[in-house]
Amino acid sequence: MTAQTKKRGATENGDGGVGLGLAAFIANNEDVGPIVRHAFESGKPEALLHSLQNIVKMKEVDIEEICRLHYEEFILAIDELRGVLVDADELKGTLSDENLRLQEVASALLLKLDELLEIYSVNSNVGEALSTLKICLQVISLCKICNRDIAEAKLLSALKTLELIEKDYLQNIPLKLLKKVIHKQVPMVKLYIEKKVCSEFNQWLVYIRRTAKEIGQVAIDQTSLTCQKDEGMCARQREAEESSRVGFDVNADTLDVEHMAEEPMLEFDLAPVYRAHHIHIGLGLGEKFREYYYNNRLMQLNLDLQFSTSQPFVESYQPFLAQVAGFFIIEDRVLRTADGLLSEGQVDTMLETAISKVTLILEEQFSRIDAANHLLLIKGYVSLFGATLKKYGYRSMSVVEILDKTRDKYLELLLSDCRKKLNYAFSKDSYERIVIKKENEYDTNIAAFQLEPVDGVPNLPYVAPFSSSVPNACRIVRSFIEELVSYLSHSGSTNIYDVVKSYLDKFLIETLNDGFLNLIHGGSLEFPQVVQIAGNIAILEQSCDMFLWHAARLCGVPRCLLEKPHSGLTARAVLKASQNAAYNGLITLVNSKIDEYMLQLTSINWTLEEAPEHANDYMNEVIIYLHEVVSSGQQIVPRDALFKVVSGALSHISDSITTVLLSDRVKRFNANAAASIDIDLKVLEGFADDTYRMTGFSDLRKETSFRDCLAEIRQLINLLLSNQPESFMNPVTREQNYGALDHKKVAIICDKFKDAPDSLFGSLSSRATVQSARKKSLDVLKRRLKDFS
């Protein structure tokens, strides 16, 4: 068979391409495995088998040709071919089995392939889902963080998380439902944050209003402490200047400024305000919150300024002013640290509102106060209130101006209070010299007021030369000075010493001095008490310099300025005059007491039949009383003043006896009665001489002695008992022996004097002759006195 025949046969079989290829592979002795595999993979094993059969037929033709040509070889070839055929059948069976096995394996692989393709699809979907889920998880994580921050009250952090969600994630969320939910919840969460922070801020408003009182009180206390330190430094500086002036060490009294404690900063919580402000700014509501803050704080201020009259002002002024001060201290801190939450204009508006209201309240309450110490306490606290506001940069001039308007009222109240205290001290004083038994009593009542020049404590018990009203009066005067200086120093005046000196003079004259004068002229005190009052006045008159120095020290005036002429108090001279008035009161009191004794003179028997041997009882009582006067007055009253008292008393006794003899109560009296008066006078003259000599009055070198005070009554009694009464009309004799007598008084008394008793046997007595001569002389005197008149 030729090549054309082969080609035609292959083509007729319809699979020339596969057959040619397979034949080429077989001809070249190559592996036909790929062709077999391809046939099975393409699902056309029948074509392969058909091609193989065609090849076999072709080979059979070739074999026949060859066999014909090569019979023997052909026979051999047939044998080989038969073997090949057997092998082919075996191969066919094998291929069939492999095909089956291949189909079985391929089916499983195809299933796996389908699964793999499905897995590839799932993988793509899962990747997309993971990408979506990642975004959603990030958003949900942020939402969780936001919820956690809100639960932990970290509202600012929560707000920042919301801003992050809105800015970076909200538009990129792939899930529409989640995106819708987030888009819906974000405004709600913002509203919740706004309400939450507003709730916290409202709680802060309650807290800060409750705390403002304490804040203000602490700030005012700090201001008070600062003022005290300043005053202490000024006082030490003045002491240093005084020490340097007199030659002491200047550095001994200097202040160690380095060790002075610094003023602590007031602590109060503004974190809720800062947080609320920042959160509202983050929410885009900054202006709304600023308005909300201002309106609420202004409302709180108005509530703080609503003063209740149910409680006395003196008990409520400190909490009231501390509340207002605390309010503005807080606002000052907010203004400086809250990043524009408040403006200076808003703070000024609130300050003007507060100052206006406080001013009205103070003016009204000041008009109702009736106690100086209350007014001083309130004024001092108001001054500290103004100083505290000034320290924080506020103006409070109108409040300070109110204080200046209350000065006159305060001084009236202060004078009235001190007057009441003095009157109470005077009323409780027994006016007996106080006895100091303890050292602390000496320090409190004597050394503290420099009432004794002695350094150190004397031997105890110690009898002071004054009564209890003197240290009490010193306390009252010093209290008056201190309260007055304290009041005036709060007014801001620099030169208050002249004002203090003026009012101190007024107080000492119109209150202290008038109090003593009222006691002196009251008429309810005994002689020892008036003596003690006179001694008290002398002590207080000497204490005027101490009072003035105390005022100068408090006012910051150097002591050297007090040594200038005319720098003392007028009150000292006034007290000196009152001391003299007290001595004159002693004279009046003694004479009044003597008048009580002299009333007995009118009840004695003026027509005695026999001359008495002893003095009358009234004269004994007078002598006892005069001894008491001298002994009690000698310890306190100066000798000049006591001399006037005793001489006045003796003169008064003389005048009293003369007045009784001149009065209508004595119709007549005889020589025995005159002798009785003579005995009384001798006793009185003995007292006068002893007192004048033994008590040192003779050292005064007065022109008259105590005996001279009795000259009138002595000369009168001598005249009545004289044997020649008519010698009174002799000018020389009258000048020598009766110079103190008035002829008119002598005429009246002589008319009442009957030298001898009018009895039936009067002419028979042993003294009849002498009495007759005296009577004749007396009758002559009476006639001549009538002629002289």
From TrEMBL:
Keywords: Coiled coil, Exocytosis, Transport. The keyword Coiled coil applies. The keyword Transport applies. Transmembrane segments: none annotated. Residues 52-220 form the Exocyst complex component EXOC6/Sec15 N-terminal domain. Component of the exocyst complex involved in the docking of exocytic vesicles with fusion sites on the plasma membrane. Belongs to the SEC15 family. PANTHER family: EXOCYST COMPLEX COMPONENT 6, SEC15. This is Exocyst complex component. The lineage of its organism: Eukaryota, Viridiplantae, Streptophyta, Embryophyta, Tracheophyta.
